Amino acid sequence: MSTRGPNRRILSLWFPRMGADRLIRRDPLLTDHPLGVVAEHANMQVLTSINSIAERHGIRVGQPVRDAHAMCEGLITRQRNTLAEQSFMAVVRRWAGKFSPWVAPEGDDGLVIDLSGCAHLFGGEEALVQVVQDDCNDLGLSVCLGVADTRGAAWALARFAGQSGQSDRNGDAIDQEARATRSRAGKRRHWTKGGAAPTVQMGRNDSRHRIAPPGQTYVALSPLPIAALRLDADTIAQLNRLGLRRVGDVLGQPRAGLARRFGRGLVMRLDQAMGSAPEPVSPAGAAHHFAVRMTLPEPIGLADDVMAGVDRLLDRLCAALKTQGRGARRVRLQAFRVDQGVEMIEIGLARPSHDPARIRPLLELKIDDIDAGFGIDMLRLEAVQNEPLQERTAVGHLEAGDSVNRRLATQTGVDDLLGRLGARIGLDAITRVHPASSHIPEKSAQVLAATWSEAHKGPWPAPPNPRPLLLWHPEPVTASEAGPKVPSSFRWRGRDHTRIRALGPERISPEWWLDDPNWRSGVRDYWVMDTDHAERLWLFYGHGGAMSAGWFCQGSFA
Hints:
The protein is an alpha+beta fold.
C-alpha cells in the first residue's frame, strides 16, 4: 500500500471503450462499423461499451439497445463477456507495471498508478504521458489519463479534463419547463421520432489539460463539473439545483453546512481530492507460485529414474501447496537435458488437490513422452494453475469421524477418471451439457468443460414443444410448393421425401438485439414432419430477413 509523502504523484488511466476495443482486437473487421457491447441490466438490454463510430452516431453508453438500433441502423452488437474483460484488464495491468510497481485496478475500465519517483525515468511526466498514449495506440486502446497530486484529482482529470460545469436543467424534461411552455411541449419532436439527436461532448485530449502541476490541485479541479468528485447521481442533482455546478463552487462552501445537507460522503470526497484525507494505492498481490526443482549429480535416462525424482519433487510441491491451503489444477514437469534441450509434459486434474497419490499416476501416464536424449541432469515440477482448497474436518465420535474422512477421501472416482482421460486426450476435450435459459433451440443448452463445472442437479427442464434428438446447422430444402404452406413433398440431401404427417407450427423469433448469422432468415415456423422414409424431421419456414425466405431442415427426432 503506497502512502508516500508530499511529492506524491498519481496517474489515472481510463479506457472508455475497453469492451469494444477488446472485441476489435480479436476481430479487426469490426473496425469500420459501429459496434456496441450489450449486457442485461434491470431486465433490459443496454450498451456497456461502444466504439468511436457508434459514438459519432449519437449513441451513448447505458442506452437501451432498441434506442441505439433506432438511431443507427447498421449497429453491430455483441454480448458482453465479463470474465474475458477482467482477464484483458489483468493483462493491461501487467503492461502498466513498466511505469511503476504500484499499479491497482480502478473500477472495471481503469487503472491507478503511483508515479512518485518514477516519472524522471521517462524524461518527465509529459514524456511519460506520451509513452502511455503511444503504447495504447499500438495496442488499439482508447485511453484518457490524468496526473495529479491525489488519486481523486487524477481520476477527475482523466474523465472530465476540459469539460465545464453545466446545469442539469436542459429543458428536455416537461417538469423543468415553465407552465406557459408546457402547452407547446407536445409539438417538440423527440429524437426517436425524427427530432435532433442528442450530442455527446467529450473532453479535450490535450495532455496540458490532464496534468496538474505539483501543488496546483485546487486550480486544476475548480473548473471541472461537480461529477468529477465521484459522487452519486442524487447528490450531483441536488447540488446542481442549488447552483453548485463546478468543483470550485463546492470548495468555497463551509464544510459543516455541506455535511449537514449532503452527508459525510461529499466532504470525504472533497478531502480525498484535495489530499486532506488519505487514499492509498494498493496494488494487487502477487500470484501464488509453487515450483520445485532438483539437480542430478549424474544424467539419467530411464523412466523409472525419472519417476523416482518426480516422487521426491512431488512430496515437496504438495507440502508447499498444503501449507498455503491451495490445490494444483495443472502440473507441469520439465526435464532439462545435457544438450540444453528441454522436454515437458503437463497434466490437469478434474478437482484441485495437494495429494501426491492423485497426481503421480497422471504424470506416470505421460512419462513416456519425454525423450531423454543423452541424459537428463535437472527436473523441475511446477503447479502452473492452483486454486484454494477447503479442508474437510469431521467432528463427533472418534470412529465416526474417521469413517467420514475415509468416505470423503474415496469420493474422487469420477474426478480421477476425468484426470486419466484428460491425460490421454486433453481435459478440454471432455465436456458436459447444462440447460440454458433461451427460446432459441440451439441455445437451450450450453456446453461446459467437465473439469470446470459440476453436474446438473435435478431434472432437465422440459421444452414447451418436442425437440429433436439431433440438431445441425439449417440446411436448405427444395419444397414442391412455394410459400409458408406445408409442402406435400420436398427434396433434402439429394433424396425426395413425401409428407405423411405434419405437426405444428411453432413460431420462434430471433434475438433482434444480436446479429446472429444463423438467424438471418427472420421469424421461423417449425414443423415436425413424418416422411415416407420412416424419418421424423424438424423443418421450418423462414419468413425472410437478411436472407431470402424458404424451407430448411434443422434436426431429426431419430
